[in-house]
Amino acid sequence: MLYPLKFTPILKQTIWGGKKLAYKSNDQSVNTSIGESWEISGVQENISIVSEGSLAENTLEELIEIYMGDLVGDQVYEKFGVEFPLLIKFIDACDNLSIQVHPDDKTSKERHKAYGKTEMWYLLDSASDAELVMGFKHESSKSEYLSSLHSNSLTELLNIERVKKGDCFFIPAGTVHAIGRGCFIAEIQQTSDITYRMYDYDRRDKDGNPRELHTELASDVIDFSKQEQGAIPYPQLINETKELVDCEYFTTNYLKFNQEIEKEYIHLDSFVIYMCLEGSFTLVYNENQSINVNKGETILIPACLKNLFLQPEKEAELLEIYIL
Fold first, then answer.
1. I need a labelling partner for 88 at 20 to 30 A (CA). Which of 10, 194, 275, 315 fits?
2. Residue 197 known to be catalytic
């Protein structure tokens, strides 16, 4: 029988990673420079593995193959088959990430036989001077972009956003972007690992070689329009679910609660994901079964579980993610 599923985090060491995610590893050799924790992944060679319960050690792909729509929802299974459609991450940026862009579905399928990458960020925490790159500060063009790139002045064209804890940003495919030093982020994105690196501050890899750039690939997918939207406004009201992002690839809501919350998904034909941002809560399902969810944990609710109760330990915050 299906139940709410936790997975073993897939940790990624990077040249810009830090120590905030070290608690997710029991391996002492993997306790620094952890840039990303892939919480739920259907990316090939990085398929998530169930960590608890009777289905432990099974991969997410194996479970979708067996349970199909009961796990992910009939409409999701019909569209994506055994490939889980979202990649859920925590990101710890101890240094600036490269300035980059992702292709859309059409270009990704033509070039890579893969999905594109539209994503969103939620700031779990940030340094007082933390910033993000989001698009262009004014209308630009391919020629202006290439000229600035070759003259080492690309950053002068880009829109910089000062950020704080609780900020939320939506990054459609084609938007030039970069996570800045001091940002700790929850990321929800399409299942894709395709990134075109545009500029990387002349950094070198562990072998001393310049990191690869994808100048020509990137120039064909960039949205050169002025960035109009900054952080997405939303009310942080207690015990009320508030929408952050609703796009064709995913819907993400925010919930802070200090009393029991009932969740009914009878009209939703999709899995649901909870990312616990603060505090902890008990998730009650099938009337009398329960599982604890703590800060920093991510849990996948099968589509067949339609009635849940969330019981906080004092107070909890979470992101609720599904596909409409």
1. 315
2. yes
